Amino acid sequence: MNKQTANQPELLAPAGNLNCASAAFQSGADAVYAGVSRFKAREMGDNFSWDDMSRLSAYTKKNNKRFYLTLNTLVKEKELEEFGRLVEKISNLKPDAVIIQDIGVARFLREYFPNIAIHGSTQMGIHNSAGVAAASDMGLERVILERQVTIEELRKICSTGTEIEVFIHGALCCSISGHCLFSSWLGGWSGNRGRCKQPCRRRYHGEEDGSKKSGFFFSTRDFYSLDMLDVLADAGVCSLKIEGRLKKPDYVKSVVSAYRMMLDTPSDLKAATLKEARAVLAGSYGRKWSHGFSTAEDMASLIQYDSAGASGRLAGSVEKTGRNGFEASVIQRLHIGDRIRIQPRSGDEGPSITITKMSRDRVSVKSATKGSSVFIHCDKDVSTRSMIYKIGESSAESVKRPADMPLYDPPLELSLKITASENGLDATASLPDGTELKWRDDETIDPAQNRPLEATTLEEAFAVTRNEQLQASSVKAEITAAADGPGLFIPAGRLKKTRRAFWEWLEKQTAVSEALENKVIDTDFWRENFIADRDSDIYADKKGKPAVFKPHDIKAGVKLPAERINVLDISSFIGGPSRSVTGADGIHELILPFFCPENSLGRLEQMIEEAAERGIRRFRVTSIYQFSLIR
């Protein structure tokens, strides 16, 4: 676990690639979250190569930072073996945790990769204490809360004891994470498979009371909480997360710098620092800001219906168009590598481009200053009189990548057993292949005069290695002394000297040298166990039949239950204290609401009890939190 103190939560930044990770750490992030090529919630984003991910792992371990890998999509049955092979590679990099959405994946990891810490993605839709409890029961160490949680609710949720992570900056969503089907319905691009096309950012047309309406009715502002960090810390949040794995290094640098500035400022100076931090944050060129769902008043500012995309800073206008681009009148410096958004006067959504080529009088230029005109080359359709907004700066100028970052070389993990007696100290080191190396210090150990030596003191001392390529993954100590005696005592200076002598001896052993040269981490055991479980009846019901029906079962002639099931959806009952399930006759199944605010949990539990008293035994679970209510 990586719990921070209540007064200083972890600052967690997005990393779409190694440059973004470097920008985050150089700007003050404690940790980053990153994705690999598959099974992540941003399939269309940049991918870390395995070498770059290895470099990230090496950097974090050397510099006391952390990195989390995202595996937060739904995984299909036929993909499980491929998923396992990916986790096998990931496990060799020793991430501090993996972030998941699929509860089946949670079981898979616990079963076959129990040493990997698991965090619950916001895609799980967890938004109350019952959901946190259910996630904890599934083996999750941390939960990333849904954005639709108020500060009042957050305080109650943080009291559960499970690590809580919240978003503090970035894109908001007009839907509930993990439940949105907007993109899937409009084109088959599922947000739960990392392929959301963000249809909520488009302009829509409709009619209300006979009057035509047009606007970006689902497009939310960006979440902002520079002035809320103390409140979040006091609530008990352990990690503050910045959204944006599709963002560039300049965005990461600006946002992380601003939040680091506020986190490190003493309370009595925060008011003065806020103005400076806001100015730094303005360099991220995002949308207009909102406090999101923090309070009822804040919710009124969520939607930015009159604007599309990142607002950015006005940088000029389109004077005329050509076959390969357009002529721009510049009012703010533009540079090769900058990103701009072209906003048509019509208000429709315009294209966003990265400037790769500019020219003046047919001569290539790298920049255009205020007051000048320049031809910007692009292959997009652009209309005259459109406004040009700068939404990002040249990444080459914004951050320098750490030079010659080494690949991660996992240490050789050893198990140590230490035994202390009045006749001396014995140590046994067990190598991964089962080889045991024994060492002894014959110097006698004196009886204790005051505080006797404890086993934990020995374990902590011998866990400290002098070579980063050797790691004591487990240390067990035992002290052999007369039960009625005063115990044993080793001065601190002697204990350090003894520890150094042991590790010096161990490094010189031929078996250790050979193990370091031929270091292979065996994680293939998972595949044998997985295949054995898959081919057995472990996932069958009590009658030996499949526990679930699949679409192709119908074609194969499997008979589905024929009886008619009457259901009642009680989503609308939440918040309606006068409504009750006792008035509904002939109901066989209750459909539970996928969203239940913290303050309504008690009311929902009461409804479930009323339904059970009436003989209802079928409850349709639509969200993870419900497992805590119906067991």
Tally of strands = 31
Number of domains: 5
User: From the helix content, strand content and strand pairing, which structural class follows?
Assistant: alpha/beta
Task: List low-confidence stretches.
Answer: 546-554
If strands are numbered along the chain, what order do they take across the biggest sheet? Answer: 1-2-3-4-5-6-7-11
At CATH level 2, the architecture of the largest domain is: Alpha-Beta Barrel
Q: Describe the largest sheet.
A: 8 strands, parallel, barrel
The CATH topology of the largest domain is what?
TIM Barrel
Shape: globular
Question: CATH superfamily assignment of the largest domain?
Answer: Aldolase class I
The CATH first-level class of the largest domain comes to Alpha Beta
- Cα-based radius of gyration, to the nearest Å: 29 Å
Helix count, DSSP H or I runs of 4 or more residues: 19
Compute the separation of the termini in Å: 28 Å
Q: Give the percentage of residues in beta strands.
A: 15-25%
Q: Specify the helix fraction band.
A: 25-40%
Roughly what is the average pLDDT, rounded to an integer? 83
